[in-house]
Design brief:
Mean pLDDT: 82
Helix content: 10-25%
CATH topology of one domain: Immunoglobulin-like
CATH superfamily of one domain: Immunoglobulins
Oligomer: single chain
Shape: elongated
CATH class of one domain: Mainly Beta
Number of strands: 15
Length: 307
């Protein structure tokens, strides 16, 4: 189809089961899977690229057992589209209701099978295949650290690249050589191709090289360095056992933290709340009071005799 051209087509749907079914249809953008091969966006996602060129005659169809129906669609190529190959998809799936009788409670899992029909649009003109490897970096994934090779098809034709990614140590020795072979790589898409690290690689800096050939001899290349770091070790604390009174304290090994629990000591005389000077002062005060009482008693007797 040329730019600003229109085309029509149809999709044949058939119910091969024994019960009526409701089939929903939709349009999806195409993409490239992580290791190569065409794939399509998630069901229900809104088209933002080639999928916007396609219009369905109806989005939902009900079919009785054994019945079939053709659903039409149209393609409108925008006027601004450059020559090249473009891909989208039409999806169809049976609507499932996990709780038809209304008695189901709790969580449920519904396995939904979908069918996707690829729609390829070739706009005539001069086609120029082109690929790039923008970066190679380390990625953390649930399964561990991997090398991620970023690959992009920035040309206007589908390609099937193949090549390899290698790692070399500081002496130039090649320590990893991973082949890369990919199926159809869709135009205007990018993926990060994963390469697993083997356990024998030591921490340090490595020279990385990635090369891909495509379109009968064209090549995309990347060279750089990556640094593999040692896994972090969790910190540990070693507690020394409590020693008895008078027992010599043991010195922990160098580089290991320790915690020593000292036994409680009985309070000494110097730390008692009652000090000796308090006792002496109290005794002197009591003696003075007794002397005053005795003098008053003698004075009273002398006055009675003189009378």
């Amino acid at each position: 189809l040329r730019s600003d051209a229109t085309a029509t087509g149809s999709v044949l749907l058939r119910n091969t089961g024994k019960k009526p079914v409701v089939i929903e249809l939709g349009v999806l953008d195409a993409r490239t899977s992580q290791t190569g091969g065409s794939a399509f966006a998630e069901t229900g996602s809104k088209p933002a690229a080639v999928g916007m060129w396609i219009t369905l005659a109806q989005p939902k169809v009900t079919l009785q057992p054994g019945a079939k129906k053709q659903v039409g669609f149209s393609i409108q190529v925008p006027e601004s589209v450059e020559p090249g190959q473009h891909l989208a998809g039409i999806t169809a799936y049976v609507v499932k209701n996990p709780a038809k009788d209304g008695k189901q409670t709790g969580a449920s899992i519904v396995v939904q099978t979908r069918y996707v029909i690829a729609v390829q649009v070739d706009v005539p003109g001069t086609w120029t295949p082109s690929m790039k490897i923008p970066a190679v970096s380390l990625l953390e994934q649930p399964s561990g650290t991997v090398i991620g090779v970023s690959i992009r098809n920035d040309g206007d034709t589908f390609v099937k690249p193949s090549g390899s990614m290698t790692l070399s140590d500081s002496t130039g020795k090649r320590v990893l050589d991973h082949p890369i072979k990919m199926d159809t790589f869709v135009t205007n898409t990018e993926v990060t191709y994963p390469v697993a690290l083997h356990d024998g690689l030591k921490p340090g800096k490595y020279d990385v090289s990635a090369r891909l050939t495509y379109a009968k001899g064209k090549m995309a290349e990347y060279t750089g360095t990556i640094e593999i770091k040692a896994p972090e070790q969790p910190a540990t604390a070693v507690a020394a056992p409590t020693r008895a009174v008078g027992e010599a304290q043991q010195t922990p090994p160098t580089g290991q933290p320790s915690a020593v629990v000292q036994p409680a000591q009985p309070p000494s005389a110097t730390t008692s709340p009652i000090q000796p000077w308090m006792i002496y002062g109290l005794g002197g005060l009591l003696g003075a009071i007794a002397l005053l009482l005795a003098l008053n008693l003698l004075r009273g007797r002398g006055q009675k005799r003189s009378a």
